[in-house]
Amino acid sequence: MAEALLKVSGVRAAYGSSQVLFGIDLEVGAGEVVGLLGRNGMGKTTLIRSILGLKTMAAGQVSFGGQTISGLSADRVGRLGIGIVPEGRQVFPNLSVEEHLTAFSAVRNGSANPWTPAKVFELFPRLAERRNNLGSQLSGGEQQMLAIGRALVTNPRLLILDEATEGLAPLIREEIWRCLRQLREAGQTLLVVDKYVSRLVEIADHHVILEKGQVAWRGNSAALAADRSIWHRYLGV
Question: Is the pTM for the entire model greater than 0.85?
């Protein structure tokens, strides 16, 4: 196990009287790719929102790079080096592709060779062709590429992707998986939520499966790939 960059300990969270998370523990080592899995409604997005400071936790602690970040505002968490590709893309309809990438550019991981808009255009040539198009003028796949590029130019130490391939055409999904493989090879730390388990086991080191707000299973990709009963029991595939 690599040294933990992100450590989640005993996190509980609720919406009103409805408790959603029941003491979640999770670690992501520097340079690792970790899959966060589970059926819809099992608490994955709530856990991500808790990590990002978008959801107040009822109990537990989150640390990042050895620093406790529980209770920090979302903007402070982001400046520490956690990037997010949110479910639903959430691009700005009135900003062009280039304006998105320029506005979010920062170097938060100390890289001597940081992500820039130009490097994002190399990664996604389709965005380069549409650099002057507004967010509202892009297809769903192009918006997803832009959401990934927007997160990359912040040069995060940890990049979280919440259902980055959801609702995309097969060819566009392949573009996203190609991107994730490249990021893995470059040593980018990733926490990935995705329903395409068969693809995720190809790139992830470890996985955590949530069931009704609790950790139901954890293990490496080899163990998950070898035991399809886990898929049927917890993932509905």
Answer: yes
